[in-house]
Request: fold
Amino acid sequence: MTHKEKAEQLIRQRFYCSQAIMGAFADDIGLDIKTALKISTGFGSGMQQGGVCSCVTSAVMILGMVYGFYDAQDKEDRVISSRKVNEFMRRFADKMNGAINCRDILGKDMSNPDDVAAMREAGMLSKICPNVTSITIDILEDLLADRLGDMVDGTLDLADMQESDEMQTVLASLRKFRRFRKNVNNLLFSAKHNVGFIQFDIRQFKIVNDLYGERIGDEILDFIKSQLEEVCKERQFYINLRSDVFMVVTEYSAEEELVGFIQRLNARISNYKSVKLQMTYGVYTVEDRQMELRQMEDRAAMARKAAKQNAVSNILFYKEQFKESLYNRKFIEENMQAAITERQFMMYLQPKYSIAKNEIIGAEALVRWRHPERGMIFPDQFIPVIEDNGFIREVDYYIWGEACRFIKQCENDGIEPCPISVNVSRVHLRDNECIKVLSDLIKNTAIPKGMLELEITESIDDQAVSSKAFQLKDEGYTLLMDDFGSGYSSLNILLETPFDVIKLDKRFMESMMVSGKGKLILEQVVAMANKLGLGLLAEGVETKEQVDLLQSIGCDQVQGYYYAKPMPKEEFYELLKNQGNQ
Ligand code: C2E
Ligand code: CA
Ligand code: CA
Reply:
C-alpha cells in the first residue's frame, strides 16, 4: 500500500488526520503502528485552539525521526534537519496559500462548537482535511526521497506490496540500495587503509536527453552502470542514486590512487557512441569512521555540487568551507522573509554617466541587505540562493517598486528624473507574472514607461529568455542586455535582438584592453552596435585609461567606480538635484 492509501484507510476508520499521517509513515520511521497512532492522538489539541494544522505537527515529527539530531554540538546535522523542516514549512504554506494554522486553512474555528457543527454539516472536514493530508504526504515523500535506503532498512513490509512491474523495479532498487549500504558499512568497519566516497553526475544531462532523446539517455545510464560493474573490483562498491547521479565507495591507500581510479573511470565513460559526456566528481575521504553514513554521502554530494562551479578541474575533494556555504544558505533561508517584512532590503543606485557631457544620464538599481546583526550583505552572497528557492520574486518586486517610487518622487519634487534600470532575474522569465507586476507598478505610480528600464542577462541558448525578452519589448519596455561578453554571448545575437542597449561586461573590457587585437574586437562591437542602432554602455569602468579608450572608440555611456559607486537612494537624490541646479 502507498502512504496515501494507508492514510485514506485510517481516515475511513475515523482516525484523526495527524494519526493517518503518522500511521502511514510508521514503517518508515521504525515505529509499530500502535505506537504511531497513540503518540499522535493529541497532536490536534493545539489545532483545536486555532493553532498549527496537525498535519504539520505530524510531518515535522516524521522529519525529526528521519533527520533529527541528537548531538547538540553537531552543527552540520542541525543544519540538515532544520533545512528539511524549513523546506517542508515553505512548501506546505505555498500549497495552502500561506496558511499553516487550522483556523486559516478551514476558515472556521475548531475551538468553537458551532463552527465545528457547521463544518460537519457542510461536509468540509471530509473534503478539506483529506486533501491537506494528501498534500502533506506528497511533500513528505519528496523530502524523504533521499533517505529511501535508510527508511526501508529492515522495515519494509513486502506482503503489502502489489505485484506490479513498477513495484518490482522499486523493490529491486531498494534491495540494491540496502546491499550497497551493508557493503559500505562492512568496508568502513574492516578497511585497513582509507575509504573514499566518490559521487559523480553528468554535466547537463537534461540537455543530453533533450538533444538525443530519452532512449539514448537511458542507454547512457546503462552504459555507465556496465562500466562501473567492470571497473569496481573487490572492496569497491557503486550505486546509481537517482537519474544520472552515481556513487562509488572504495578503499585506497594514497590520494593519487583515488584520483587514478577516477581518471580511469572517466576515460571509459566520457564517450558513448558519438555523444561526448562531461562528468563532475565530488570526493569525500573518510576521517572519522564513526560518523553517520548519510553524513559521508552528503559531503561527497557537496563536493560534487562545488565541482560543478569549478572551471579548473572536474574532480573536487570535500573541504570544510563547503559547509560554510551550507550555513550561509540556511541563514538566508531563515532570514529572508523577515528581511522583507522588516524592510531590511534597500535600493542602492549607481549612476550612469555620459563621458562627453560629464553628467548623469541614468542609474541602475542594486539591492542591498542590511541585516541588524550581520551588517551589510551583498547580492552575490544571497541572490544565487534566493534565485534557487524562488524568493527573488519578492525581492525584485520590492526593488522595482522602489525604483518606480523614486522616479515619482523626483517628478513630484520638480527634479528632472533620469531612467532607472532594474535587474530582472531569469526566474521571472519562466512565467507571465512579471509582466503583470511591472504594468501594475507603472500604473499605480503613474510614471512614464520609458523611465523604468529592464536589465536582463541574455544567453544565446536560452529560448525562454529570448522569447520573454521579445514579449517585454512588445509591451514597450526598454531592454538592456546585461553582462554582454561575460559568457558565450556572440556577435550573432545582436543581429536580431529585442534589446535596446548592450551593457559591456567589466571582464570583457578588461580582457580586451590587454592586447591590440582585443582593442580591435572591442572597436568592432562598438561599430556594430552603432550600425544596428543599439545603445552601448560599459560597466565596471574603474580607471581614466578605460574612459579614454572607450571615448576614442565611440562608446560614450559608462557606469563604474571611476565615476561613482552604488549609493543609498537618498544620496543619489541629492546628486541629481545638484546636477539640475547647475
Ligand atoms: P550586475 O547587474 O552586473 O551589477 C553590477 C555590479 O558591479 C554591482 O555589484 C556593482 O556594485 C558592481 N560594480 C559597479 N561598478 C563597478 C566597478 O567599477 N568595479 C567593480 N569591481 N564592480 C563594480 P552588486 O551590487 O554587488 O551586484 C552584483 C550582482 O547581483 C549584479 O550584477 C546583479 O546580477 C545582481 N543583483 C544586484 N541587485 C539585484 C536585484 O535587485 N535584483 C536582481 N535580480 N539581481 C540583482
Ligand atoms: Ca545589472
Ligand atoms: Ca552587469
About this structure: The CA atoms of residues 226 and 269 lie 10 Å apart. Confidence is low (pLDDT under 50) at residues 151-159.
